[in-house]
Design goal:
single chain, mainly alpha, ABC transporter involved in vitamin B12 uptake, BtuC, globular
């Protein structure tokens, strides 16, 4: 409980700090006034309410989506290297977005999210299909290798579509990863999906804990493992698809945060999932803040910043043979 309280306080402070700092720095007291006593006649209030607040809330929501998706995947597959970015799910969603931009450029955002879900599902099916072809079964490293290969393939397809249909400029935002274009409309469409998936993940958390102990143990304790995996994967596709449709194909959030949560609160997913929600949001909010502060007035892609942490973390886990920290 203390870990969750500290995380919530840190997230609230990070959100306030991220809204305050930017091309024009704004005092925290002004941020507080603008959020709770909004005056549309004041320029600073307009900047906060129309630009910075939806951006920062979008970053928190995206971080929570990626982190919970990673936690669910690691629990269901018993694979500590599992992450929606490493297993082709993010790349599948991004590839489907490229197809949408090429053939339906004026598609409403609601439909973009639905197509992102579809692309995430296709990417996941291809990865699991390729990874399961070996006689020795689906091992953590084989799953990651299949995910890397499929991600590269889908990324190449996206690039090819962008070049052929001359939509590279439209897709550049999703390739780099960022929340600068997030609006209240995006949050309004994304919020119901996120809320439903988070509630579903909490309801599933006890079953995921038992499943993480081993399939035989879970079956012996009366769990319907196939049903749990189907529901869990559906939740992962919703979370990853919604996040990619806002921020792009950002990786490693779902790899790093669940391990940190597991280190802080143990192996019970009834605590890991809420901890992942909070600390996933905190990680992406801080990454977005750093992206704006490193080289102002230009922005560094948050995907690149998170990869600076994520790649060494992944190599560390791989060196341990896929064991948890």
């Amino acid at each position: 409980m203390i870990v969750l309280i500290i995380g919530i306080v840190g997230l609230i402070f990070a959100i306030g700090l991220s809204i305050s700092l930017g091309a024009a720095n704004i005092q925290l007291t002004t941020v507080w006034t603008a959020v709770f006593h909004h005056d549309p006649m004041l320029t600073t209030h307009q900047i906060i309410w129309e630009i910075r607040l939806p951006r920062v809330l979008g970053a928190a929501m995206v971080g929570a989506c990626f982190a919970v998706a990673g936690a669910l995947m690691q629990g269901m597959t018993r694979n500590p290297l599992a992450d929606s970015g490493l297993l082709g799910i993010n790349a599948g969603a991004a590839c489907m977005l490229a197809i949408c931009f090429a053939f339906w450029p004026n598609l409403p955002y609601m439909y973009l999210i639905l197509y992102a879900f579809l692309g995430a599902g296709v990417g996941a099916c291809i990865v699991y299909g390729i990874g399961s072809m070996s006689r020795s079964g689906l091992t953590p490293m084989r799953l990651v290798l299949a995910g890397a290969a499929v991600s590269a393939l889908l990324g190449a397809l996206s690039e090819g579509i962008a070049l052929y249909f001359q939509i590279g400029q439209d897709l550049a935002f999703w390739y780099a990863g960022g929340v600068s274009g997030t609006t209240w409309m995006h949050l309004k469409v994304m919020a119901p999906w996120l809320l439903a998936a988070m509630v579903g993940a909490m309801f599933l958390s006890r079953s995921i804990t038992l499943l993480s102990l081993g399939e035989e143990v879970s079956i012996g304790l009366g769990q319907r493992t196939k049903t749990i995996k189907v529901i869990g994967m559906l939740l992962v596709l919703i979370l990853a698809g919604a996040a990619v449709s806002v921020v792009g194909a950002v990786g490693f959030v779902g790899l790093i945060v669940p391990h940190v949560a597991r280190f802080l609160v143990g192996h019970d997913y009834r605590w890991i999932i809420p901890c992942s929600i909070i600390y996933g949001g905190l990680l992406v909010v801080l990454a977005d803040l750093a992206a704006r502060m490193i080289h102002p007035p230009y922005e560094t892609p948050i995907g690149a910043l998170i990869a600076v942490i994520g790649v060494p973390f992944f190599l560390y886990l791989a060196r341990k043979g896929g064991k948890e920290i």
